[in-house]
């Protein structure tokens, strides 16, 4: 199971977390977020893919960040349409479309995104477009109809490990590509706790 650490913000902390060799780093380019990134990314191993997180940004904004930070993927957290995703295809990067879930989800929504996205990400529906700090009902994913791999996100921390291990043994998890963690591993927005991440990574 791959690991994505999202909401990276501080130069030295990015370097420290990179030593743990996660598979993805998430950098949030949404100005209203407490984890908004506007700094410099240090040299990190090429094995760690850099993901830019956007909320209803313009194509021009996304292209600018992709080029500036040499991003390998974009994560779309807003109301981006399939047509919008299609416009990003020429960038030759991975496109992750986010869908928020609470207790139910209409999976028919995914149909129009099948040909324009590389991954889906399922997050917890809350007041904010991500970073709400609690999990959704993972049983909803038992009805996942797509062959496309997905990221599991939303308030995942060490305390969810038992439930996570159970989930990873279910049919619903067969297409789960990566676990996405963020706020449960911080001392403040964007500042990750190395020991907690190390422990989590060893258990997943």
UniProtKB/TrEMBL annotation:
<keyword id="KW-0057">Aromatic amino acid biosynthesis</keyword>
<dbReference type="Pfam" id="PF00697">
    <property type="entry name" value="PRAI"/>
</dbReference>
<keyword id="KW-0028">Amino-acid biosynthesis</keyword>
<comment type="similarity">
    <text>Belongs to the TrpF family.</text>
</comment>
<dbReference type="InterPro" id="IPR001240">
    <property type="entry name" value="PRAI_dom"/>
</dbReference>
<comment type="pathway">
    <text>Amino-acid biosynthesis; L-tryptophan biosynthesis; L-tryptophan from chorismate: step 3/5.</text>
</comment>
<dbReference type="InterPro" id="IPR013785">
    <property type="entry name" value="Aldolase_TIM"/>
</dbReference>
<dbReference type="InterPro" id="IPR011060">
    <property type="entry name" value="RibuloseP-bd_barrel"/>
</dbReference>
<keyword id="KW-0822">Tryptophan biosynthesis</keyword>
<dbReference type="InterPro" id="IPR044643">
    <property type="entry name" value="TrpF_fam"/>
</dbReference>
<keyword id="KW-0413">Isomerase</keyword>
<feature type="domain" description="N-(5'phosphoribosyl) anthranilate isomerase (PRAI)">
    <location>
        <begin position="4"/>
        <end position="200"/>
    </location>
</feature>
<protein>
    <recommendedName>
        <fullName>N-(5'-phosphoribosyl)anthranilate isomerase</fullName>
        <ecNumber>5.3.1.24</ecNumber>
    </recommendedName>
</protein>
<dbReference type="GO" id="GO:0016853">
    <property type="term" value="F:isomerase activity"/>
</dbReference>
